[in-house]
Structures are given as structure tokens and as C-alpha cells.
Design a protein that fits this description.
The chain has about 350 residues and is mainly α. It has two domains: about 240 residues, Chondroitin AC/alginate lyase (Glycosyltransferase, Alpha/alpha barrel); about 45 residues, no CATH class. The chain is about 45% helix and about 5% strand. The relative contact order is 0.13. It holds the Pfam family Alginate_lyase. Keywords: Lyase, Signal.
Length: about 350
């Protein structure tokens, strides 16, 4: 089972990535949106280049060298050739298509297990116009209905999920791309390219470009739009892909295929009922939705004309502390020809 990065891992990535700073909305100026490398929108391309020059000349700090060594150790297992795909999931989604991504929300429990654990804050969500059901045994789901128990993480939900494969792929491609960038060791780019091809491009293992079954609720056929937040890491994934384009292992043909795939996903994010709910969520989910769609859109525009720029305003985001969304809005407007 994958786990969130530890604090140490997060600090390592900050050192190696030199992520954009956390300016407040009030002091986010147009100049702050100027990116040295037009293919990178979240990572500071100029700073990455400076760090690489220092590393190659032997002038890198001990902190940087230690961080890079740590990441190499972390990625050692990735070099064994293990790949990730939604088609490796243990249960076929309700659609019957193994290529559909699926996950169950962390806080959902079969009713019998929730009662056994003694959780006293569980809620049973029902379809409109229906009454709550009694808890009964069920051969497929253990017991039904499932209940939402806020704050109580059900680790067993990974059994019904392709989320772990997706997260492993995302994290490893990001880390391997950084290692390729700094060390120029061919093996890192080769493995990263293989991971991307298996997850997104190969006919037998590719994911369908939609998230209809992200955080679905067993038995209820209830779709949680909140599941779209699970791909927020793909803004960094596409930054990593931009770096991999400098290697021989990620060809123009590969890149065009991936951008085709991302374009289809963006269309779904902006036209589906789940995407619309996240768009108007009015909380952090809306901000992450904006960042995901815009972050993907900035890369896709290198091939397509992106006409699906979400209708949004700076005022709508101004009270939110996720200020990277402001930077994305600013840069997107400049790139796509919208006025601020």
C-alpha cells in the first residue's frame, strides 16, 4: 500500500524542485507569472537549470547532494521494471470495463464493520426520495449499505481501488524525471517513459480518460465528485513529462499520444456532471479542480487550441490560501490570450 510522502521526502522534493513560492493573492503580480522555460508552469525552470549547472560543475551544496542521493535510493526499486495500470485492480468496476479508474472514498465503511468499530458519527447517504436501509450481509460488499464515517480511514478500500497504482506511477515518474534531469543517467528516463506508456498509452493496459468511478460508493451507485481531487498530482506529472522530452526515450509520437489522452480527459472534466459539481464546489475542491484543469491545459495547448478554459475569476479564488491557483490563473490567461 502506498503512503503519503513523509516530511523528509517533502523537504527533499522542495530542495530538488524549487517550487514556486507562496505569495498571497494581493501581491501576486504579472511578473511573478513569468516562467523562464515556456514548457514548465509549476516548477521554477530557471532555478532548476541553475541547480543543475552547480551540480555538474561540482559546486552544488551538501544539502542538494544529499537530497539527490536520497531520491536515488528511493527510486532504486523503480529500476526493477515494475509497472502500474488500472487494469491490475482486483475488482472490475461496475461498468464492466477493467480500463476504468475506480476508487472508494477513505471514510466509507460497510455498515456492519462501522457498527463493530463503534463509530458514532457515521452517515448513510441515500438516493433522492429513498429511505435509509437496514444493515444486512452482502456477498459482494461484505454488508450494505455503506456509511460515511468522517475521520475514520478504511484501509480496506484499497482492495476496490486503482488509486494506489495511479499514485505510484505519478510519484515515480516525477522522481525519475528529476533524476534524469540532474544526472542525465539514461536508465531514469527509460523507466519513466515505460511507466507512462503502460499507464496511458498501451492498448492492453491504458486507463480510459475519465473518472466516473473515482470515490464511488458501493451498493448506492452514488458518485462522489470529490474523487476528482485524486489526480491533482498530474499537474506535476506533466511538468515531469516536459523534462522527459529532452531524452531519447520520450518521442514526439509518445507526447502527441499523451496529449491526445489528456485532451479527452479535460473534455470530460469540463462537461461531466461530476466535473461541474467540482467546478462550483465553493471550497478547496474547486481550487484543486481549477489547478488541475488549467495545469493540464497549459501543456495541452502546445499541441491543441484550448477553448475549454474554465469560467472563473480572481475574486472567486481570493479568499483561498492555495495561492498556486492564482499563479496558474495568471499564467493561463497570459498563455491563452485572456485578459486579467
Amino acid at each position: 500500500m502506498s503512503h503519503p510522502p513523509t516530511l523528509n521526502k517533502r523537504l527533499i522534493l522542495v530542495v530538488l524542485l524549487s517550487l514556486l513560492g507562496h505569495a498571497t493573492a494581493a501581491d501576486t503580480s504579472a511578473e511573478e507569472c513569468e516562467l523562464a522555460d515556456p514548457t514548465l508552469y509549476l516548477w521554477d525552470a530557471k532555478q532548476l537549470s541553475n541547480l543543475k549547472k552547480k551540480y555538474q560543475s561540482g559546486d552544488a551544496s551538501s544539502v542538494f547532494k544529499s537530497s539527490l542521493s536520497f531520491l536515488e535510493r528511493e527510486c532504486a526499486e523503480a529500476l526493477d521494471g515494475e509497472t502500474y495500470s488500472v487494469t491490475y485492480q482486483k475488482r472490475v468496476p461496475e461498468s464492466g470495463d477493467i480500463h476504468d479508474y475506480q476508487s472508494v472514498g477513505y471514510y466509507w465503511w460497510p455498515c456492519a464493520e462501522a457498527e463493530h468499530e463503534g463509530f458514532n458519527n457515521c452517515v448513510q447517504k441515500t438516493k433522492t426520495g429513498t429511505e435509509p436501509k437496514e444493515c444486512v450481509d452482502d456477498a459482494k460488499w461484505g454488508s450494505i449499505p455503506w456509511r460515511y464515517c468522517d475521520g475514520h480511514h478504511n484501509a480496506a478500500t484499497f482492495e476496490y481501488s486503482s488509486k494506489e497504482s495511479m499514485q505510484q506511477m505519478t510519484n515515480q515518474v516525477r522522481d525519475l524525471a528529476l533524476l534524469w534531469y540532474y544526472t542525465e543517467k539514461d536508465q531514469y528516463a527509460r523507466i519513466a517513459s515505460q511507466l507512462l506508456q503502460v499507464f496511458f498509452l498501451d492498448e492492453d493496459t491504458r486507463m480510459n480518460p475519465m473518472l466516473q468511478y473515482a470515490q464511488f460508493v458501493p451498493d448506492l451507485w452514488y458518485f462522489e465528485s470529490a474523487g476528482l481531487i485524486e489526480i491533482t498530482g498530474w499537474t506535476e506529472l506533466l511538468e515531469a513529462v516536459a523534462i522527459l522530452r529532452t531524452s531519447q526515450h520520450w518521442s514526439n509520437a509518445h507526447h502527441r499520444q499523451l496529449m491526445d489522452w489528456m485532451y479527452e480527459l479535460m473534455e470530460w472534466l469540463q462537461t461531466s456532471r461530476m466535473g461541474e459539481k467540482e467546478h462550483y464546489a465553493g471550497n478547496n475542491h474547486a481550487v484543486w479542480y481549477y489547478q488541475t484543469v488549467i495545469g493540464m491545459g497549459l501543456h495541452v495547448t502546445e499541441i491543441f487550441s484550448f477553448h475549454g478554459y474554465p469560467a472563473m475569476t480572481h475574486e472567486r479564488l481570493s479568499d483561498n490560501t492555495h495561492t498556486r491557483a492564482h499563479l496558474f490563473v495568471c499564467c493561463a490567461e497570459r498563455k491563452l490570450g485572456f485578459s486579467s
